[in-house]
Amino acid sequence: MTRKLVWSLLLCLTQLATLPGCLHLPYFSSTTSESPKKTDGDTGANFIEREPKHPVDIAPPIPPDEHFAGLAQVSGTTPKALGPILLPPPRTAIDLLREQASASKKPGADQTAVVTVEGAPPLKGARGQKTPLPTLEKKAEYPFLLALHCMIEKRHDEALQHLRAYDRETQEFFLRLMPVLLHVMQKPISELSLVEIALVNQQLRDAEIISRARCELAVNTLRFCKQVRGYGAYEPLPDNHTFVSGTKSRLGDEVHVYAELKNLRSEKTKDGVYLTRLASRLELKNAAGKKIWSRSFDRVDQPQVRRAPVNDFHKDFRFFVPAIPPGTYQLTVQVVDETNAGQRRVASKSLDFRVTPAAN
Predict the structure, then answer these.
(1) Bigger pLDDT: 70 vs 14
(2) How many CA atoms lie less than 13 Å away from 301 in the CB half-sphere?
(3) What are 145-159's pLDDT values in tens digits?
(4) Nearest to 149 by CA among 167, 162, 168
């Protein structure tokens, strides 16, 4: 009986190298043949033998004469009770670095240093280590955001310094928008009074004036009309309307051409008025594309003068049908915005122009 107990103990001890650190090992007493009682939570001689959660490889037993020869030679002795044996967990990269930091500490130093390691590469073969994510450099903030932050803190001079990173037109554009943003940040639009809404709209219109000058000049509407009273107030003629041609002895029908222009530029003068310089031209071409008639309107040296920037603008071009053969022609209206000589913009649009002969 004693020999069997000794060999059982040797077999258990040789398997410790492969068991998890948290697994408890039971022992058996030689004084009784009964199995040990399993009491949950027992920390004494008897405890629950738990199966490992993961498969455990069992190493081949080591001959008793190599490591436990002395124990095998003692006859009739009972092994002492062995408490729970825990295998130490594998050391990680952070453990090694902390040991190096402790070893490099000067002798006699009475202060305890705390070493924090961020993004340390894991050791080869270490478990539970994740590859650190790459760190991205923080981009510098845009000057506009810095200026807006200064405006919120009422540091207006610093805000202007940040805006100087942009060109003159961009600075003016931001200066129109920033008061609107600050106003809405402090008070929702639904709570703004009529006066506050009017101020917000004015700031937005001023910003639109700056951006409008960069937009493409366009002729939005072009119609033959019976009468033109103003912007959007006109009486159009039918699309298939025909005009009577002129002769050598008499003029043809009078033609009213209504044109709506968009994105005109206005230049503010020292007197506080706004100037817009336009050059317009009408041309008639036959079916072969040959120009048979043309006429110029407006003069650059006689600009449009307004007390406010040009927004809704229209032209009423009038002329008499020249002495041309009957047929269908193409009437083209060309408008040139020359308010800024360095940024000349051109827009054009065409209509079918039907002509009938004059009655004898």
Answers:
(1) 14
(2) 0
(3) 898 889 888 898 999
(4) 162
> Tokens 């106003």, residue?
183
**Helix (H) or strand (E) segment spanning residue 200:** helix 194-212
Distance (Å, whole) CA 323 – CA 249: 10
**Using alpha carbons only, how large is the chain's radius of gyration in Å?**
48
Q: What is the pTM of this model?
A: 0.54
- Count CA within 13 A, CB hemisphere, residue 307: 0
Architecture of domain 218-356: Distorted Sandwich (2.70)
Position 122 scores a pLDDT of: 53
Burial status of residue 240 (CB atoms within 10 A of its CB: 0-12, 13-18, 19 or more): exposed
DSSP 121-134: PPPTT-SS--PPPP
pLDDT digits (tens, 9 = 90+) for 107-117: 554 554 444 44
The half-sphere exposure of 275 on its side-chain side, counting CA atoms within 13 A, is 14
Name every residue whose Cβ is closer than 8 Å to that of residue 263 and which is 6 or more positions away in sequence: 212, 213, 215, 216, 217, 218
**Residue 179: C-alpha distances to residues 156, 196, 205, 319 (Å):** 12, 11, 13, 48
The domain segmentation of the chain, as residue ranges, is 1-89, 143-212, 218-356
Non-local (6+) Cβ contacts of 35 within 8 A are none
Distance of CA 40 to the CA centre of its chain: 59
